[in-house]
TrEMBL record, chain A:
SMART domains in alphabetical order: AAA
Name of this chain's protein: Sugar ABC transporter ATP-binding protein
Record organism: Micromonospora musae
Superkingdom assignment: Bacteria
GO molecular function: ATP binding
UniProtKB/TrEMBL annotation, chains B, D:
Main location: membrane
Keyword flag Isomerase: no
Transmembrane segments: 21-41, 86-104, 110-130, 137-157, 177-202, 228-249, 261-277, 284-304, 310-329
Pfam family, one: BPD_transp_2
GO CC term (a single one): plasma membrane
Subunit structure: The complex is composed of two ATP-binding proteins (LsrA), two transmembrane proteins (LsrC and LsrD) and a solute-binding protein (LsrB).
Source superkingdom: Bacteria
UniProt membrane topology term: Multi-pass membrane protein
Function noted in UniProt: Part of the ABC transporter complex LsrABCD involved in autoinducer 2 (AI-2) import. Probably responsible for the translocation of the substrate across the membrane.
Keyword Manganese: no
Record-given protein name: Autoinducer 2 import system permease protein LsrC
């Protein structure tokens, strides 16, 4: 199909991509039930819904990776090509999937031209690198084509994926949660790039759990809930609350708006005290204190060293110099159990990678740091474990069959609640949390932040390490890290713009 | 929430546990079937003498499978067990017997032999752990190398000879009978019970599952992952050395090739018993069932007098089918 | 030409002789290995350092190729796989390097001399001994070696043939063991459960099967003197010192002594003679044996005596000399 | 941009490729060192006869390593190669020779033997592929089972006997000499060159790397991953069968234990040569270097007259050290 034909199609008001009555089951799970979507040519269309609503499934069907059980897919009014004809699909739709499709062991150039390195005959490696360099330059991506893809940053990989997606000549691009792993500056650059492309007539389908992004870059939005299509509206016709209501099926305000909190008295004891901490290559000379009952935010761009700092406090890394004092004691550096014993609760960055043991039950995951307290002499009394876990499930409102369900069966938001429950399991005096709401839908986000506030209200000192402004709204103060140093300490009352420019390292007047 | 979390579609809403438990018992019907087949083939099969024999012959394999199962659950690999089972008793015996009987000439007190044997196993496990954890080498590669080195060491130390002049203390465990049942059965049985309880109900045991399931998460939750894995590897070496003691006692000598080629059977038994090579999955009870299944098949083929020419192919085919069934019934049919 | 710098313990003068040991994990072959330097001294043989092919014919081929490169003028080997050596023998013949084969008779290819006891005779002698002791009836269990071993097969076939013709009322249970003691022990346990009236055991290799068999019988309280009706008659094969010890104690009844010392002695003797250009004829020898023509060469069939309680202390037996 | 692409911190921004290339040649210094050591130990080492012997002795191992390397790069596993190298020629020969020579009695035309042998290898690879790809079983498990079954089949078919009466056509490849160099060296060398070119410069070859690196991504890029892996497994079987032919020709018979225990050496050579067990990484040139290193070590130990008693331990220790070095020098020292 030529681009002229495509344009002819759009002129007639035919959607660039359309799914009609699509259904998909995985075993007993209905991932999509007669759902549909129509993306108009030239628009940026948002697809939102809670974790497990079926968004990624719809994406895999729209890109020809999965065969729907029922329904049909059309591009520019014409039926979709056969599933086996991948090249035909890729000329119609390009996709940056939720899971990276970069092959880390191959070079950037080869990733860009995977499975089309040459026509027939030998591959001309030099020519391939040149073509790759041209392609990357064409989209303004500054990456060495000869580098191994595994050595790229998340943002660079994503850019490579976008460049590759576009290089097939497709004018319709799907981005499945592209912002989930990017910091604020990188997100801005991504949006600039999207707007640029949109101005050249490219159509986008954009998936995100960050609703403000939907308002920022999208013109229309489709909501999926319980595998069904709920609504499709222009974004300006839908308030944030209405959007959330459509996603959750409940009315009422769902978002944490930075709950008003009483100020922390200066007499409150310091529960977390970091002095002169240094880790070569990550951060240097970091001092910070958190008092009991205080909620402190820590923000910074991807290379600011904030996550490494949090990991050092938790004992996952060992600092080159400096001290960490937790509730008055100095745990042995580089030892997680010592930090836990000193009264630290820790919520790691990525629940899939460091948070959960997928095959183990909710109860086991949630009680892991306190396993020693569930019975005498290292025995885990099953009844006590179940009881503890059931209490946690109630406290944090975890939707699960019961404490014995493997966490791999939980949706993203509920899995994250298990990680939070685990971090709070030992009634920590100090709590360090990294990206506590990453990839979690709005509804779950609200209840997670509520639980954090309650922990602070209960007397714990909390350090929230996050790029998400929503996570930081109820903090008493927010520290900003830049290139390994804490450069700002912003009390409550900051504006989004202030904070973002501080993160960028822009000096405030 | 999008829908009740019944993904997979195989399990009823609330009854998560019963099915998981059921999976542990997946081999029980197979064992019952084999017992019936055995009884039909030869009534002798059900005699207590024969049953005792089957169990006793499997004790050493059982201990190796116990060791390998724990190591696999922790997400690691140990191929060198099959050499430890020979080297550990060989070294211990060579250290205590006189040079005239192919000893090393040190002639340490014979009473020390058992301790020396177990220490050797422990040391091998510790050395594997050193290479895997400190030097961050792949467990497969390290233990593949050790498999070759340890066998070579045994041949070097013994000059390739079988050791006959075994001190009675070393022979005792593998040949004694307690309450009418061979001691080796008591020992292996007890160790399996200990293992099942430890891995099921103790903090450190559960941490083995956590490490195998997701090492980073286990570390972030305050489990000393390296230490636990190291201990697991050392226990593995210790169990292999104990298996070597039992085998030495049962056969009355240390063969130069003791344990040679056994590792394939060990993996087959563990996998048939539901242990996953990816770590974090399977139970020791399942592994024990795997051992028993292989033992029964062996015994039945012998009793049935299957021709020597085809016995290996038939045995192999049964193992292959069992492996396939184990994989298919263990839920996800994925690599 | 020993000036080629070949390494090794050149004890003597004259042409270099290369020798390959078939395996390092059997008592019999280790005894043989111990005799080799001793007789090399005695015959003043210029011996290269022995290689070991670990029961793997491709290693044997590699070792022989290395020996030839290093200037061996005659080669002593013991190919456990008698077919797979044919092409190597062809190469050696074309280079005029004579070969002495110990213990096995290559199926194809020229050999100067095979030094070997008659494995069929082992099976035969064991059968006759057991048949007689059992009075021509009863049940016997036989631990065979590996199906892929020619010596094992010779013993099995001769044993089976003799039993069939001379003692047809004896039932034999043939147990394949791959030369593994553990397999033999398992088979013995199972058979004893199935047939408690087993009265005889023939094991084709004492080095491997002796200890496990005694261990099983001991645990079943079946190690009783021959006068006891529960006694099980055991014939072994090899002639290692441990077997003699067991015969003296009455635990086993007989063994066929495979002469490790004579293997080493005559192998080196013939190798040296061949390198010096001597030749031999079929016919009786001066050392109680006969040389026969086997088509692709000659074979010196050494005597392999049956050792029982009567002659177990004979100092001429190699098993009584080793370690003394 | 968040951070310059220097994660890992070891390599300079632009010069990525040269370093990757260098890694392929990592073993070349080791080979040169071995050559010097060999020449010092015995001048015979450098004689063309000895070098030819070393190379010829490694040809069968080289073909197995070639097969295993491609399979490993594709992210799979094949343990059964060590049985295929025996079964394929045994079956082919048994089908053509008369029953009197231990044949099966079919007495097909002798000219067919080579084709039958290669077809057998192909069929074994295809069957492995069926179980791994259609039934979604783990490659480790499937090929572990097949290892046992195929060896059993060979013993069953041949009655455990070595086959001597080999048709000359079967013997030809393994024993012929072309232009003064054994044909088997030509064949293996050519196949390695073909493999290096195919995996380095052809789209289908590159797709093997893509699949091993990230199967889902490869599928999304339109690579027919299942088909490619299936073909790779079949090529693996084919190469093993060819190795069997060469070995049969070189040794003049099909031993019942042909290839037994070889798989450990195959993995050692592949890993020393830089092939990763995780898939997607390593080159065939590196694997070839691994084979040559092992061959030289073997030859030097033989020429040096290392005592038979300790040779295995020394060989094993050298392999272990080589494995460790290979792991440490291959960049990430991680499992
Ligand atoms: N491969 C699969 N096998 C079985 N079930 C699946 C699979 N993929 C998705 N599902 C099911 O389909 C449902 C929809 O999943 P999907 O990934 O489309 O959700 P999503 O809307 O993308 O969620 P998220 O926001 O967390 O990315 C899930 O509830 C899940 O149970
Ligand atoms: N292969 C699968 N089998 C069964 N259920 C699955 C499968 N994959 C995903 N799911 C289910 O789909 C739902 C959401 O899946 P997904 O993996 O997209 O969530 P997540 O990754 O945890 O969330 P997010 O990506 O937003 O952080 C969960 O209920 C999850 O259990
Ligand atoms: Mg998701
Ligand atoms: Mg999704």
């Amino acid at each position: 199909m030529t681009s002229q034909e495509q344009n002819a199609g759009s002129a007639a008001g035919i959607p660039a991509a359309e799914a009609r009555d699509v259904s998909k089951r995985y075993g007993a799970t209905v991932a999509l039930h007669s759902a549909g979507i129509a993306v108009r040519t030239g628009e940026t269309h948002a697809l939102v819904g809670r974790n497990g609503a079926g968004k990624s499934t719809l994406v895999s069907i729209l890109t020809g990776l999965q065969r729907p059980d029922g329904g049909e897919i059309r591009f520019d009014g014409a039926p979709a090509p056969a599933l086996a004809d991948r090249d035909a699909w890729r000329q119609r739709v390009a996709c940056v999937y939720q899971k990276s499709t970069i092959i880390p062991t191959l070079t950037v150039a080869e990733n860009l031209f995977l499975n089309r390195q040459s026509g027939r005959g030998l591959i001309d490696w030099r020519g391939l690198r040149r073509r790759a360099a041209d392609l990357l330059a064409g989209y303004g991506v500054d990456v060495d084509p000869a580098a191994l893809a595994g050595s790229l940053t998340v943002e660079q990989r994503q850019l490579v994926e976008i460049a590759r997606a576009l290089s097939f000549g497709a004018r319709f691009i799907i981005l499945d949660e592209p912002t989930a792993q990017l910091d604020a500056a990188a997100i801005d650059r991504l949006f600039d790039r999207m707007r640029e492309l949109q101005s050249t007539g490219v159509t986008f389908l954009f998936i995100s759990h960050h609703l403000q992004e939907v308002y920022e870059v999208c013109q229309r939005v489709t909501v999926l809930r319980d595998a069904r299509h709920i609504l499709t509206e222009p974004v300006e016709a839908l308030s944030r609350d209405e959007l959330v209501a459509a996603m959750t099926g409940e009315t009422g305000r769902a978002l944490a708006e930075g709950v008003a909190r009483p100020p922390v008295p200066a007499t409150a004891p310091v529960v977390l005290d970091v002095r002169g901490l240094r880790l070569a290559g990550y951060y240097d000379g970091v001092d910070l204190t958190v008092r009991a009952g205080e909620l402190v935010g820590l923000i910074g761009s991807g290379s600011s060293g904030k996550v490494a700092l949090a990991e050092t406090i938790a004992g996952l890394r060992r600092a080159d110099a400096g001290t960490v004092t937790i509730a008055g004691s100095n745990p042995k550096p580089g030892q997680v159990p010592a930090a836990i014993a000193a009264g630290l609760g820790y919520l790691p960055q990525d629940r899939h990678r460091e948070g959960l043991v997928p095959l183990l039950s909710v109860a086991e995951n949630a009680t892991m740091p306190i396993a020693g307290r569930l019975g005498p002499a290292g025995i885990i009394a099953p009844a006590r474990q179940q009881a503890t876990a059931e209490r946690m499930i109630r406290t944090y409102d975890i939707k699960t069959d019961g404490p014995r369900q493997p966490v791999s069966d939980l949706s993203g938001g509920n899995a994250q609640k298990v990680v939070l429950a685990r971090a709070l399991a030992n009634d920590p005096k100090a709590l360090v949390m990294v990206s506590p709401t990453a990839g979690v839908d709005v509804r779950s986000k609200a209840s997670l932040l509520g639980a954090v506030n309650e922990a602070a209200a209960g007397g714990a000192g909390v350090l929230v390490v996050s790029d998400e402004l929503d996570d930081l709204r109820s903090c008493d103060r927010v520290l900003v890290m830049f290139h390994g140093e804490v450069i700002r300490d912003m009390p409550r009352g900051w504006t989004d713009a202030d904070l973002v420019s501080a993160v960028e390292g822009v000096e405030q007047p | 929430m999008a829908k009740p979390p019944t993904s997979g579609g195989t399990r009823p809403g609330g009854g998560r546990l019963p099915l998981a438990r059921l999976r542990d018992f997946a081999l029980v019907p197979a064992i019952l079937l084999l017992v019936v087949v055995g009884a039909l083939i030869d009534p002798v099969f059900l005699s207590s003498a024969n049953i005792t024999n089957v169990l006793q012959q499997q004790t050493e394999l059982a201990l190796l499978v116990l060791a390998e199962a724990i190591i696999l659950i922790a997400g690691k690999f140990d191929l060198s067990l099959e050499s430890t089972i020979g080297l550990a008793p060989a070294l211990a015996v060579a250290l205590v017997i006189p040079a005239a009987s192919n000893g090393l000439g040190t002639e340490l007190p014979a009473g020390l032999a058992i301790v020396l044997c177990l220490l050797t196993g422990l040391a091998i496990g510790a050395f594997n752990g050193l290479l895997i954890l400190r030097f961050k080498l792949s467990a497969f590669i390290v233990t593949l190398g050790m498999l070759i080195v340890l066998r070579g060491l045994q041949i070097g130390i013994t000059g390739g000879q079988n050791l006959f002049d075994i001190p009675p203390s070393v022979l005792y465990l593998g040949s004694a009978v307690w309450l009418g049942v061979p001691a080796s059965i008591w020992i292996s049985g007890t160790l399996f019970v200990v293992g099942i309880v430890a891995l099921g109900y103790f903090r450190h045991g559960r941490s083995v599952y956590a490490i195998g399931g997701n090492t980073d998460a286990a570390r972030a939750a305050g489990i000393r992952t390296d230490r636990v894995v190291w201990v697991v590897l050392m226990i593995g070496g210790l169990l292999a050395a104990l298996a070597g003691l039992l085998m030495t006692g049962r056969l009355g000598s240390v063969a130069a090739a003791q344990g040679d080629g056994m590792i394939f059977t060990v993996f087959a038994a563990a996998v048939i018993g539901g242990i996953s090579l990816d770590g974090g999955k399977g139970t020791l009870f399942g592994a024990l069932c795997g051992v028993i299944v292989l033992g029964l098949i062996n015994n039945i083929l012998t009793l049935a007098g299957v021709s020597a020419q085809w016995i290996q192919a038939i045995y192999g085919a049964i193992i292959l089918v069992a492996l396939i069934l184990a994989r298919l019934t263990s839920g996800k049919a994925q690599d | 030409d020993s000036s080629s710098g070949g390494s090794g313990n050149q004890a003597g003068s004259g042409p270099q002789i290369g020798i390959d040991l078939p395996r390092a994990d059997s008592d019999f072959w280790n005894s043989y290995a111990k005799y080799v330097p001793q007789f090399a001294d005695e015959y003043d043989v210029n011996l290269m350092s022995p290689t070991n092919s670990q029961n793997d014919v491709s290693k044997l081929v590699a070792n022989v190729q290395a020996m030839v490169s290093q200037g061996a003028k005659a080669v002593v080997m013991a190919p456990q796989d008698t077919g797979a050596i044919a092409s190597t023998l062809g190469t050696l013949e074309s280079r005029k390097i004579p070969v002495v084969s110990v213990d096995t008779r290559p199926d194809k290819g020229k050999v100067f001399m095979v030094v070997r006891a008659d494995n069929r005779a082992y099976g035969q002698k064991a059968c006759e001994f057991l048949g007689e002791k059992l009075g021509g009836k009863g049940k016997v269990i036989e631990f065979q070696g590996s199906l892929s071993s020619i010596n094992g097969r010779d013993r099995s076939e001769a044993f089976a043939e003799c039993m069939k013709t001379k003692f047809p009322e004896i039932t034999i249970f043939e147990e394949p063991t791959e030369w593994e003691g553990a397999k033999a022990a398992a088979a013995l346990q199972t058979r004893l459960a199935q047939h408690p009236d087993i009265k005889g055991v023939y094991m084709q290799a004492g080095g491997v099967f002796l200890a496990p068999t005694l261990q099983v019988l001991r645990s079943k309280n079946l190690l009783v003197p021959p006068t006891d009706p529960k006694h099980i008659f055991i014939v072994s094969n090899d002639g290692i010192p441990q077997e003699f010890e067991a015969i003296r104690k009455g635990e086993i009844d007989a063994t066929v002594s495979q002469p490790a010392d004579l293997y080493a002695k005559w192998a080196l003797y013939y190798a040296k003679a061949a390198a010096e250009g001597k030749t031999f004829q079929a016919g009786p020898t001066d050392h109680d044996s006969t040389i026969i023509d086997i088509g692709n060469g000659l074979e010196d069939q050494l005597a392999a005596p049956l050792v029982t309680k009567e002659n177990v202390d004979d100092p001429a037996l190699w098993g009584n000399q080793i370690g003394k």
